[in-house]
Amino acid sequence: MGNRKNIGIIGYGNMGRAIGQSIASNDCWNISVYDKYKIKTKNLKNIIIEKTLEALIANNSIIILAIKPQDIGSFIDDNLVYFLKSKPTLITISAGLTTKYFQKLIKDIKIIRVMPNLAATVNESFSLICKGDLANKSDIEISKKIFSQIGEVIVTEESYLDKSTSISGSGPGYIFYFMDVMYNSALELGFNKKMARQMVSQTFFGASKLAKSSKKDFQQLTKDVTSKKGTTEAALNTFEKCHLSSILKDGISNSYKRAKEISKIYTKNAGS
Ligand SMILES: NC(=O)c1ccc[n+]([C@@H]2O[C@H](COP(=O)([O-])OP(=O)(O)OC[C@H]3O[C@@H](n4cnc5c(N)ncnc54)[C@H](OP(=O)(O)O)[C@@H]3O)[C@@H](O)[C@H]2O)c1
């Protein structure tokens, strides 16, 4: 297995699986996983399934921690001795938990924090990456390489990670909500479920692709499909009359408030 780096993933749920499946296809790395439910890690291709956490932590110089934020405090308590023994670089993807939180729990360990989103499951995540005090340039480089496999990556300061929760983290939820409104409207217009679903999904996909490939800002793109006294304008005027944009902004602002509250609750014990 030559100079391949060993990467271990703890927690093989939605995110762990998305990352594991995607990076296992890259020859640069040997991937190992551990989940407390063995059934989740049955019959995996190109992935080593470790029987114990001790072995996973000992055998991998990079560990991606993909368990829920509320489970992390007790997880570290239970396994601190293994981390202190081999001191792997720890990549956390937990919403709301800061690098300082991990640094307080596990001294002298290099921490990288990443905020991906659910589109990682189709290799279309948007991930923000930052480093803790002890991590260095090469830890950032390897993290960039790992998360580029599941989508787009930007390296930034940590303060942006909680903020991104309310945009790119929860964002897919807002989009699905709007898609559902359009889907139900299509059903009311008489389309069958299959047609309605395809029409709505492809409209979002097409609009997103157009926006990504264009240099125009979103307002200009909106104007481009809105002719005077036309059909799009009729809908947009109604949205504006109901102050939909300020309602959406309020929602996003509440999402950010909640991210900060959750972060406070989870980090309370570590005193961060
Ligand atoms: N899902 C998203 O959209 C998203 C986006 C950005 C970031 N994240 C972050 O990604 C992390 C994982 O989220 P997820 O949605 O993938 O969660 P998930 O589907 O619940 O996956 C977590 C997995 O870890 C397992 N687990 C829990 N404690 C464990 C332990 N001590 N040892 C080994 N395995 C353990 C869980 O088992 P049980 O189910 O039995 O507990 C579960 O299989 C979270 O920290 C979340 O904040 C998620």
Description:
With 272 residues, the chain is an alpha/beta fold. The protein folds into two domains: 5-160, Rossmann fold (3-Layer(aba) Sandwich); 171-261, ProC C-terminal domain-like (ProC C-terminal domain-like fold). Helix content is 54%, strand content 15%. It has eleven helices and eight strands. The chain has helices spanning 14-23, 53-59, 69-86, 99-105, 137-148, 159-169, 171-188, 193-213, 218-224, 231-241, 244-267, and strands spanning 5-10, 29-34, 47-49, 62-65, 89-92, 111-115, 125-131, 151-155. The protein has an eight-stranded mixed beta sheet, with helices on both faces. Helix 5 links the parallel strand 7 (125-131) and strand 8 (151-155). Helix 6 (159-169) packs across helix 11 (244-267) and helix 7 crosses helix 8 (193-213). The radius of gyration is 21 Å and the shape is elongated. The relative contact order is 0.10. The mean pLDDT is 93. The structure holds NADP nicotinamide-adenine-dinucleotide phosphate. NADP nicotinamide-adenine-dinucleotide phosphate (NAP) is lined by residues 10-16, 34-37, 40, 66-69, 71, 75, 93-95, 116-118, 169.
List the helices and strands and how they pair.
Layout (H helix, E strand, L loop, with lengths): L4 E6 L3 H10 L5 E6 L12 E3 L3 H7 L2 E4 L3 H18 L2 E4 L6 H7 L5 E5 L9 E7 L5 H12 L2 E5 L3 H11 L1 H18 L4 H21 L4 H7 L6 H11 L2 H24 L5
Parallel strand pairs: 1-2, 1-4, 2-3, 4-5, 5-6, 7-8
Antiparallel strand pairs: 6-7
Helix pairs in contact: 2-3, 6-11, 7-8
The structure holds NADP nicotinamide-adenine-dinucleotide phosphate.
